[in-house]
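Notebook entry, structure prediction.
Reason for the run: the old model in the group folder had no record of what sequence produced it. Starting over properly, with the input documented here first.
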Amino acid sequence: MNLNIFLNKLFITEENLIDEIKEHSTLTTHKVGDFIIKKNQYIKVLKIVLHGRVRVYQTNEDREILIYYLGNMETCTLSLSACFEDCKSTVNAVTEEDCTILNIPVRFVRDWTYKYKSWNKFTINIFRKSYGHLINQYARLAFQPLKERLFDYLVFKAENSTVNKSHQELARELGTKREVISRLLKTLEKDGRLLLGQKEIKILK
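New structure, fully documented this time:
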């Protein structure tokens, strides 16, 4: 069912391409916290998220830099670019929700781009969309104060206005130090924008 949704969503109508996708691709399911891409591993399979959410990030010592999130019918443009040359991944990708993943060997991804118009359009759209994500992320890193990035991140991660993450986890995911996050959280609490509890953060406004 998920594969048919993917084909319909991307307007893939070439019968030969549909047959090839069904023949050469596989579907896998992943639990929260599973790595689907690891840094410094060669990209052998393009992974497309059919359902769920995946966080793509880079690491530097004990810090992480968020690149972007992948949602339904999306794939990592850095992995897609690796399909056109034999190279290692520069990022990690970990599931933040239970996910269903479509796996396509890179040699077919490359061939289909030249053979099928709809697949070529899919790859171009992925590059264009991911470029937009990267520019937005760069703008936030360059121009948005860390306090506001932290608050926006908490709002994004909140479930029922609550975030269950340690200060150390937030520091790692935002690429800064725990002491900085603790200070900014206290400032946001003084501003009346959140409430700090025992191992939880409540968003107020």
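Summary: The helical segments are 2-9, 15-24, 77-82, 106-115, 117-143, 146-157, 167-174, 178-190.
The old model has been moved to the deprecated folder.
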